Amino acid sequence: xxxxxxxxxxxxxxxxxxxxxxxxxxQNEIGTEKDKIRAFExxKEAAEKEDIGAIYNLANCYQxxIGTEKNAxxAFExxxxAAEKGQIDSINNLGYYYRxxIGTEKNExxAFExxxxAAEKGQIDSIYNLANCYKxxIGTEKDKxxAFKxxxxAAEKGQINAINNLGYCYQxxIGTEKDxxxxxxxxxxxxxxxxxxxIYNLGYCYQHGIGIGKNDIKAFxxxKEAAEKGQIDSIYNLGYCYQxxIGTEKNExxAFExxKEYNLAVCYQNRMGSERNExxAFExxxxxxxxxxxxxxxxxxxxxxxILNEKKDTAAIYTTNKYKSDEPRYATxxxxxx
Length: 338
Description:
Layout lengths: L3 H14 L4 H7 L4 H16 L3 H13 L7 H13 L3 H13 L7 H13 L3 H13 L7 H13 L3 H13 L7 H13 L3 H13 L7 H13 L3 H13 L7 H18 L5 H16 L3 H16 L29
Helix pairs in contact: 1-3, 3-4, 4-5, 5-6, 6-7, 7-8, 8-9, 9-10, 10-11, 11-12, 12-13, 13-14, 14-15, 16-17
């Protein structure tokens, strides 16, 4: 028999289902604020009745600002509550919050313990996050062999970041023997699933002949595809291609514009600048987007509300970092929250 809290949860889920894809909503102008607020209210009501799924989803609302203001402290508290009740995704997310000090004090040992707990229960993202802990020595001693095995385990279960990172391990001999062919195949597999770092890594493989014959045209094409999806390092490498005529005709004007965009993206990503100057960064993206710059458009959309609504308490001077263009850049992935 369906209870009142079951009905509340189902109604909230139906409200939220159509608004969970920000890109789709942005393009099609669906998922009104009214829908989001209603979903938040229903999750809150069901959570008050101790529905474990609703507690998790309410935390997610606070985390992402769905139907309410973002509130990292409340999100942390709710993930903690759901985790104590055994909600497996909440255990993973709680680890993420401890890992980065979101809504609580940073505690990498606690993060490691939580990832390990969720991983033992089969939570795929936690298996991947645990691999990162072993790779980088987060809350535990570095163990590259253990990291490799965990990436492999998560990749076998379809965890897309793990597939990309497993490729990185094979490419660089991390916890295993180097094998460029396997690395290339893994990047290709992740790229087919839309993983933008894997798309970028394919470009890198084609440029340097890793696991495949060198092909500057394909390298350029993959860098361009990843850059258009907002992959920051691809913006830099695309500029490098234009500057040096790799897979395309030399075009120093385009190279300059891409280097400038890369540095702007780095400044934003690293939160360099005061509130006023982060708004300036947004304005620069907006100006470029209006001129048809696809890369700028992809950076603009997910950041629009964040830049305009978040309050910053830093007073650093907004600046553009200068990088030499003698080497292309390489990327890997970081932690996953669900």
